[in-house]
Amino acid sequence: MPELPEVETVRRGLNDLVLNKQISSVDVYYDKMIIGDVQKFKDTLAGKVIETVDRRGKYLLLRFSGDVTVISHLRMEGKYYVKSKDEPLDKHTHVVFNFVDGTTLRYNDTRKFGRMELVKTGMEVNNSGIKKLGPEPTVDTFKVDDFYQALQKKKKVIKTALLDQTIVTGLGNIYVDEVLWMSKIHPQTPAKNLSYDEAKKLHDNIIKELNMAIEAGGTTIRSYTDAFRNEGGFQFSLKVYQKTGEPCQRCQTPIERIVVGQRGTHFCPKCQILKP
DNA sequence: CCCAATGTTTTGCC
DNA sequence: GGGCAAAACATTGG
To answer: Any idea which residues are catalytic in this one (predicted)?
Structure first.
């Protein structure tokens, strides 16, 4: 569900829905969702005003008054909703931020994989996950030369290298398959075997693809919705992800599914040749 | 019942 | 200590 475009869409939704609201109290129904002391999490946030919502990679950064930041990662199925305090709790609601105006921000997560952590604003860079993130996939921060050099040093195959967030952040299983298809690169190509031209093509496609997906409001495969409960629109633009057996849109060859790095992987066996 | 699922962290092995 | 691959996390749905 949430790769960078989906997280960015959630961020924008939250910035429309909860800005400048003051927290009266926080309820936590599943303690493991909170990294660190749960009581401190609740006590610190009470009375704080949410000033903005930022994003780094796939991490949301909820900025509160008093230099308080909540790092929130949605992992596989995390979702935020804004509801009136009177509405009954969903079975999978694990954290509720109650606002003084009678509305609530609710964190739902069917698989309970998501995590939140309270830090002093600015200290989020010390978070173990955020610390090792590579550049954001934008023209200003993501440079072809750096990308090529990083790939040269890797022993992993290209798909696994792109998923690990350290070379460039934001890609997940869906968009990796898509950008590799667009770039005509086989997912099991050793990263260091990519030519400079291939690296450049891949680099350009990563930026283009993620931006197009953000414009479409993300991709809804099974469960993703944004903070307004809207589904994304990019699933209609997917070329290979979960298209096993369907004809490649370039050459009509049926799309194949293999497993790479424990992940389902979709590619065109004719367009994306594994070089010896 | 068995398998797969969008992501990161932990574990264990070089 | 780093890099890497596999397991783990918890639940739903086909």
So the answer is: 2-3, 58, 263
Q: Which residue has the tokens 């398959």?
A: A177
Residue lying closest to nucleotide C3, CA to C1' = A155
Q: Which residues touch strand B (CB under 7 A)?
A: A 1-3, 57-58, 73, 75-77, 111, 113, 127-129, 163, 165, 172-174, 219, 221-224, 263-264
Residues 117-146 of A with CB under 7 A from strand C: none
> Nearest CA to A27 among A105, A141, A120?
A105
Q: Tell me the pLDDT tens digit for each residue of A155-184.
A: 999 999 999 999 999 999 999 999 999 999
The second-level CATH assignment, the architecture, of A144-267 is Orthogonal Bundle (1.10)
CA-to-CA dists, residue A175 to A99, A105, A206, A230, A240, angstroms: 36, 29, 8, 20, 10
According to CATH, the topology of domain A4-130 is N-terminal domain of MutM-like DNA repair proteins (3.20.190)
